[in-house]
Each structure stands twice: as C-alpha cells, then as structure tokens.
Amino acid sequence: TVPEVSAICEATGSAVPDEGAPYATVDDLKGCSALALGSPTRFGNMAAALKYFLDGTSSLWMDGSLRGKPASCFTSTSSLHGGQETTLVSMMFPLLHQGMLILGLPYTNTELLHTQSGGTPYGASHLAGNDSNLPLSEEEKRLCQALGKRVAATAATLNQIR
Q: Which of 65, 81, 109, 121 sits in a 20 to 30 Å window from 15, CA-based?
C-alpha cells in the first residue's frame, strides 16, 4: 500500500495509515528479492498514488538496487475492457528503467485461452464488475497463483546464482 495523493498541495497524510497494511517504503523495495506490483486500473493506467511512489525511487535507480531482480504486475478493473493490459504495461515502464526482470504469464497457463474474466500474458488481473464486488474466478485464482510461483521460483534461482 502507498499513501494517497492529495489534490490539495499543502495536505499531507500520516506516515502510518490509520488502518490496513503499512505503507511501502523505498527501503522495502531496496531490500526485496522480487516484486509483485499491483494497482487498480484508472483509465487504463496505474493509480496516481502508485505512480507518485514510483517516481520517488530515483535513489534506487542511481545505485542499481533493483537491477536484475524479478518483478511482475497485477491489476483489477470494473469492466472487462477497462484497460487491464495497458495498466499492467504502465506499471512495467518504471520497473524496466530500474533494470528489473519482468515476468508475465506464458500461454502454457491454459487459463489464458479460456478466461471470460481477468488474466493476460502481461500479468494477473481481475474483473471486479461495475460494483467492484465480483469474487475472483477460478481461472483468475489459478493465474494469480501461477504468476506468484513463477516470480518466487525465479527469485530463488537468481539467489542461488548470486
């Protein structure tokens, strides 16, 4: 979770959220072995708060902290054609600049051939519906798990090599 972005220039939020998961920090990214980056879709793009957070990671780019680490992306949309793939790609751009190794879902995950909800070769996705209350489909669950396993296995392999 990252802090919300305020439309009021002088507004600042608490460094620790009142509820929910703690906010991610640049140091969290620096210390990670792999990254699974998620965002809701906002007009075919990642949420502004995530973009703002990623824009603040230039220190990691300068020292190469993320170079060679595996990364994947996931998203959720209200409509089937709400921009799942463009959102995933928008999240990949800063990760590529950081030198991360982007992992998607190969078509050996046959759910990609049959899903009527979420799931793309660019990463895991979920069709949440107009009211954002649809549960994950069985195909979406399997694709999420497959992507997570792929990232974890890649990180484990790279850590053995280093």
A: 65
CA torsion sign for 123, 58, 69, 53 is negative
Q: What is the DSSP letter of 134?
A: P
Pairing relationship of beta strands 101-102 and 70-77 according to DSSP bridges: parallel
**pLDDT single digits (tens) 14-50:** 777 888 888 999 999 999 999 999 999 999 999 999 9
Token couple for 96: 């590529």
Measured CA to CA, the distance from residue 79 to residue 73 in angstroms comes to 18
The pTM score is 0.92
> What is the per-residue pLDDT across 67-124, written as a single tens digit (0 to 9) for each?
999 999 999 999 988 999 999 999 999 999 999 999 999 999 999 999 889 999 999 9
Identify the helix (H) or strand (E) that includes residue 153.
helix 138-161
Residues with Cβ within 8 Å of 86's Cβ and at least 6 positions away in sequence, in order, are 44, 45
95 token code pair: 């990760």
